[in-house]
Design brief:
By secondary structure, the chain is α/β, with parallel strands linked by helices. The protein has a single domain, classed as Rossmann fold. It is 41% helix and 13% strand. A seven-stranded parallel β-sheet has the order 3-2-4-1-5-6-7, with helices on both faces. α7 links the parallel β6 and β7. α1 crosses α10 and α3 crosses α4. It is globular and about 50 Å long.
Length: 275
């Protein structure tokens, strides 16, 4: 399937907020950087715009307005993606933007026109314990069908009742080749320390930057937790790499042994996350 794909567009279009969508995107872009896979992005979150703040040189902010304004904005965004040689484009969406995005994709026939150019979407979907949100996930799947690929992201820090597991929608998505990730639970102490480091630096910090050894952003123990979290996600991204990058960009991945539940930080090796 991936042989004719020359570019990938990652998008997390669900309506519900506070699912960890921007949180997950930080790990994913760190994984792309680690494997030296070129990417750029778009930030559609006009309430927080943390994605473009963390990556100002790679991510462009786009404001979604009315239905017609959003349609024009998204048309311009995807035209630029089609003209750019960068193999991966990452889009971070705000909550409640799904209707505008689906309407634009549908009326402009963007999925089909981009596919004709070898550009394929990967939808990142986040199951929740909220029935309305799960219905929204189902609607996105019914809309896109087999025209896109799917990565299901479980967030145990946000979701305690798993309505998705063993459901009909899980079975259907798996028939379409959907793969799954589980986000690590990072302590609130470390997340608060990152916010404090950002306030001190006067700018947003990517997770990779915050966790890089030798910087003064986080104390060693907290940087170690972020390193642990990044490593957990990198193993999972390696396993779903065919849904993240075109075949020509597939990284060389060494076989990984099964990770421990949470290794002691004193024994945890530090990733080289350099620039």
């Amino acid at each position: 399937m991936n042989n004719n794909i020359i570019k990938r567009i990652h998008i997390n279009p669900q309506s519900k907020g506070s699912l960890g969508k921007s949180f997950e995107a930080e790990f994913r872009t760190a994984w792309l950087d680690y494997h030296q896979i070129a990417w750029n992005g778009s930030d559609l979150d006009d309430r927080h715009h943390s994605f473009c703040d963390r990556h100002p040189e790679r991510v462009q902010f786009h404001k979604l307005g009315s239905e017609d304004e959003s349609k024009s904005t998204l048309l311009g965004l995807f035209r630029n993606v089609s003209r750019n040689d960068t193999p991966v484009h990452v889009i971070d969406c705000r909550a409640q933007a799904d209707g505008l995005i689906v309407q634009a994709l549908d009326s402009l026939q963007l999925i089909e026109s981009l596919a004709a150019q070898g550009i394929r979407f990967t939808f990142f979907l986040f199951p929740s314990e909220d029935t309305e949100s799960m219905n929204n996930l189902l609607e996105l799947f019914y809309f896109a069908g087999d025209r896109v690929d799917y990565v299901i992201v479980h967030n145990p820090a946000k979701v305690r009742t798993n309505l998705f597991k063993k459901s009909a929608i899980e079975a259907e998505l798996k028939k379409f080749g959907a793969k799954e990730l589980t986000l690590p639970v990072v302590t609130s102490i470390t997340l608060l320390a990152i916010k404090r480091a950002e306030a001190k630096a006067g700018r947003k910090l990517s997770f990779a930057e915050a966790a890089t050894p030798g910087t003064s952003h986080l104390e060693l123990m907290l940087a170690g937790e972020m390193q642990w979290a990044i490593q957990q996600m990198f193993r999972q991204y390696d396993a779903v790499a065919d849904l993240l990058v075109p075949s020509e960009q597939m990284p060389e991945i060494e076989p990984q042994s099964e990770p421990e539940a949470k290794p002691a930080r004193s024994k945890q090796p530090m990733l080289n996350l350099g620039e």
